[in-house]
Amino acid sequence: MKYAWVRDGKTISEATKKMYTKEEVEKTNAGKYKCTTTYGALAAQESDEVEVKISDPGIPCTTNAECNAADKSLTGACEEGRCVCANDYYARGDKCENGVAQAAASLLLILFAAVISRLDFV
């Protein structure tokens, strides 16, 4: 079985497996994704399209009052629409976490092959 992933109508040349993953995601990776599969002489099958949106990490806010946390993970400041994480905390998803991980904006984008499970090869 062969797999071809497509974003916004353009084939992703390096995406040829059942699951497409990408580390170090940027906002330019947002778009509409789908997968096409072929198996021998059978007609190609196409998955449903999935829209992927990329947002900045951290808790969205409009005022400083929204950025207070009982666990001290936030500074109480809202800057550029996101709550500021306290020292030793970093934004991950929609929260501030502490630990040894770097504060880099690193996400793992996984488009599960679950969309392919709808394809019916007989």
Automatic annotation (TrEMBL):
This is Ig-like domain-containing protein. It comes from Plakobranchus ocellatus. Coiled coil: none annotated. Pfam families: Ig_2 (PF13895). InterPro entries: Ig-like_dom, Ig-like_fold. Signal peptide: none annotated. Keywords: Membrane, Transmembrane, Transmembrane helix. Residues 1-55 form the Ig-like domain. The keyword Membrane applies. The chain crosses the membrane at residues 100-119.
